[in-house]
Specification:
Blueprint (H helix, E strand, L loop, with lengths): L1 H5 L8 H16 L3 E3 L14 E3 L8 H12 L6 H9 L15 H11 L6 E5 L2 E5 L5 H14 L13 H12 L3 H5 L4 H15 L3 H5 L6 H11 L1
Antiparallel strand pairs: 1-2, 3-4
Length: 229
């Protein structure tokens, strides 16, 4: 998602790895493959509720199907926060290191290269060369950036439940991956201030409270809660 939106992503941005695993969980939920367990008296908080398997129908995406396979066979079920750590490989449990989905950025980039969205280049960083994947056609990138900008300017809605679910997820996960501000940088100063102020207003909402509102997607807010705990 972020490679497509922003072209180059910093080699030093550690937030993106976890953010991409959050994307995987959200996408699986949007496609009806997983869900959060219903809230109970003991497990009301999003961070305490387990991720439940719903369907093993293939998604057509290798990364999604790989994560879904892990979720299906895992007993007892894990929370969203635990799944992000497991899929990223940031777990202290040596028995679950095999849950890590490896080389996610590289595999996503390869897929986008095959689709003609990105290309492959070698870029020199003083002592070594690094493979990078700049955007082939900036039209798609600009369209997505414009959509993000419009969400906080001309098409701003104060209630998140009125936002398109995928746009809301993109906003929350771009922030969690430390790349949301990139979409606002090209704006004029007054628009930049307005967009950042409104995005901050959205990002400071209580995920548990928002997830309980009509039309809210629990998984989107649960992933957000995991990153803002």
């Amino acid at each position: 998602m972020y490679t497509c939106v922003y072209g180059y992503t910093s080699f030093w941005n550690d937030c993106i790895s976890a953010g991409l695993r959050g994307c995987i969980l959200v996408e699986l939920a949007l496609r009806g493959r997983i869900q959060l367990e219903p809230p109970t008296l003991r497990r009301k908080s999003l961070l305490n509720r387990k991720v439940l398997f719903k369907s093993d129908a293939p998604t057509g995406d290798v990364l999604l199907d790989e994560a879904l396979k892990h979720i299906k066979v895992t007993e007892p079920a894990e929370t969203v926060q635990n799944w992000i750590e497991l899929l990223t490989g940031e777990t202290w449990n040596p028995l679950k290191l095999n849950y890590q989905i490896r080389n996610v950025r590289e595999r996503l980039a390869k897929s986008l290269v095959e689709k003609g969205v990105l290309t492959t280049e070698k870029q020199n960083f003083l002592l070594f060369d690094m493979t990078t994947h700049p955007v082939t056609d900036g039209t798609l990138k600009q369209r997505l950036v414009k959509r993000l900008q419009d969400a906080f300017l001309g098409k701003w809605v104060r209630e998140p439940q009125r936002m398109d679910t995928r746009l809301l997820a993109l906003t929350l996960l771009a922030h969690s991956s430390d790349v949301l501000e990139n979409a606002f940088v090209p704006l004029a100063d007054d628009q930049y201030e307005l967009a950042t102020s409104r995005s901050r207003e959205l990002l400071e909402l209580n995920p548990d409270a928002e997830s309980a509102k009509p039309n809210a997607n629990e998984m989107v807010w649960a992933v957000m809660a995991a990153f803002t705990k």
